[in-house]
Write a structure and sequence with these properties.
Number of helices: 6
Shape: elongated
Low-confidence stretches: none
CATH architecture of the largest domain: 3-Layer(aba) Sandwich
InterPro entries: CoaB-like_sf, CoaB_strep, DNA/pantothenate-metab_flavo_C
Number of strands: 12
GO molecular function: ligase activity
Mean pLDDT: 92
Strand content: 25-35%
CATH class of the largest domain: Alpha Beta
Keywords: Ligase
Protein name: Phosphopantothenate--cysteine ligase
Length: 237
């Protein structure tokens, strides 16, 4: 199989020296890539700029991803060529539009006028005590994947914080339908640490519990292979 993995996080620039990012390390994406490679599959890893990545391997291609625009460009390129997509990347939900000082905002009668402005300087001045940053929502990348390749096996991730298990499962099932995914790995930030990573791999028919990042990677590799084999068996009948 050719497996496309997204890993780590994206960074949206405010100016040449500042950006909005997140704390994703790419640890799970690295483990997934390593286990797919160990199973003799070809891996294309789209990794955030600071994400952990595996050692060089003849069947591994690593492409560094800066922001959502570069992620979409590479998803568009590689999804039609892949059999499996494991979308673990923590994608920025918003990107900066314009940043200005608080006094300017107060003096602007119609705030929507500021949404058409752009910061032209390489480094925004830090002389003012308060700055206001306008953000715009980014596209949902996972929602694009099945449209680009309807037969791809899609595994998505859903991270929530301090919610009941029933809500975690319900949200995962909603994501399955919304994004036409085959599996969603649902997890709660409160159950993730250096020594454990509790999660639920949810499909239309099953809910499978996992206890660690290694277990998650092993289960995703196994279920990807199983789903791929079943799909091709059905097509060959």
């Amino acid at each position: 199989m050719r497996v496309l993995i997204t890993s780590g996080g994206t960074t949206e620039k405010i100016d040449s020296v500042r950006g909005i990012t997140n704390f994703a390390t790419g640890t799970l994406g690295k483990l997934l890539a390593e286990q797919f490679l160990a199973a003799n599959h070809t891996v294309i890893l789209l990794a955030g700029l600071t994400a952990l990545v595996p050692d060089a391997h003849p069947k591994l291609t690593i492409i560094k991803i800066s922001d959502v625009t570069s992620l979409i460009s590479n998803i568009t390129k590689w999804t039609p060529l892949s059999d499996v997509c494991v979308h673990t990347m923590a994608v920025s939900d918003y990107k900066p539009v314009y940043m200005t000082d608080l006094d300017t905002v107060k003096q602007t009668p119609n705030l929507t006028d500021l949404l058409s402005k752009h910061n032209l300087e390489h480094k925004i001045s830090s002389q003012q005590d308060y700055q206001v940053l306008f953000l715009k929502k980014t596209p949902k990348v996972i929602a694009m994947i099945k449209d680009l390749n309807p037969t791809i096996i899609l595994i998505g991730f859903k991270l929530m914080v301090d919610v009941p298990t029933e809500q975690l499962i319900q949200t995962a099932r909603q994501s399955l339908m919304t994004n036409k995914a085959d599996y969603i790995l649902a997890n709660d930030l409160n159950t993730i640490s250096e020594t454990q990573h509790l999660g639920l791999l949810v499909s239309q028919h099953d809910i499978m519990e996992v206890q660690s990042k290694h277990d998650i990677a092993a289960l995703i590799v196994s279920k990807s292979e199983e789903t791929y084999d079943n799909y091709h068996d059905c097509r060959n009948r």
